[in-house]
Design a protein that fits this description.
single chain, alpha/beta, Spore Coat Polysaccharide Biosynthesis Protein SpsA, Chain A, 2 domains, 48% helix, globular
């Protein structure tokens, strides 16, 4: 890719349905502000036509990089931070979509706040691309700050530990800050929350804005959904909350420590998964979900 350095760069970790990827890239090319570039980071998905398809777009802002071997979600996210060079980076889900004002919105928020992380407004869509608002997203919406808010310190950490109301693929990160802190290699589902909390613990700023400019696709095939049904997600969450509780205590953030210890929304989420595990007679899942929901 040539030309001047844009403010915002998109890296799309790709392992999934090509049709969704086409929609994600199409939504990029529909941006009202053309000042961006993008890298599709192919994690060895069996789509032999990927390079030819990107070439057919005749768009010098878009390139493809192929991993030599399949890295998996966490390592591919880490590589996304390493291949980006712009001041701000978005790790865009290959099944999500931008609305035409996304780049314009994050430009405005970056220029007015210089925040380390930006959370714009998000609309939820289903597999078919239709707007939906499942229970989990109604809870997220009720938990997040209203309007535009510039957040730092203990309060947003405590709020996020009560219930993570951010949508990772929609976040715009100050690349150098995110790369310096990095994703925790021991997490495969909760690594996004861990990085966000670590940025705030390091003194970073999170800006939240209500202007909807991103479409987050929620469907049962996602890794986080599969892990939730099996209970595996919550084993990881328990380990994370125990760790972040200790770290919050170490820096004197008592409210954040209490929120980490209580993990209210995480426990509630596990409870909503229990009936499915019981119906399918998955004893292991029932045990994991019950342990997370009820154990101290």
């Amino acid at each position: 890719m040539t030309g001047p350095q844009p403010l915002v760069e998109f890296v799309i970790p790709f392992y999934g349905a090509p049709d969704y990827l086409h929609q994600a890239v199409g939504s990029l090319r529909d941006q009202g502000v053309p000042d961006w570039r993008a890298t599709i980071l192919d994690d060895c998905y069996p789509y032999p036509g990927l390079d030819d398809w990107v070439t057919s777009l005749h768009d010098p802002r878009i390139r493809v990089l192929h991993n030599a071997t399949t890295l998996g979600v966490n390592a591919n996210f880490s590589r996304a931070l390493s291949v980006a060079t712009a001041e701000y980076v978005v790790i865009l889900g290959c099944d999500d979509r931008l609305l035409p004002t996304y780049v314009e919105t994050v430009h405005r928020l970056v220029e007015t706040t210089r925040a380390q992380v930006i959370q714009p407004g998000v609309r939820i869509i289903d597999r078919a691309g239709d707007a939906r608002l499942p229970l989990v997203d109604r809870v997220k919406r009720s938990s997040r700050p209203r309007g535009r808010a510039v957040l730092r310190g203990e309060d947003p950490v405590a709020s996020l530990l009560r219930g993570n109301w951010c949508y990772f693929p929609s976040l715009c990160w100050h690349r150098e800050t995110a790369a310096r802190i990095g994703f925790r290699a021991d997490y495969q589902v909760v690594q996004d929350l861990a990085l966000l909390v670590d940025v705030l613990l390091a003194g970073g700023t999170l800006v939240v804005d209500d202007e909807v400019c991103f479409e987050y696709r929620r469907h049962a095939a996602s890794l986080s959904s599969v892990q939730a049904v099996s209970g595996g997600r919550f084993e990881e969450e328990r380990a994370y909350f125990a760790d972040i509780t200790r770290r919050a205590q170490d820096v004197g953030w008592s409210r954040a420590a209490r929120a980490g210890r209580a993990r209210v929304m995480s426990r509630a989420h596990a409870l909503t998964m229990l009936p499915t595990a019981v119906r399918t007679a998955d004893v292991g899942a029932v045990t994991r979900l019950a342990r997370h929901a009820f154990a101290s």
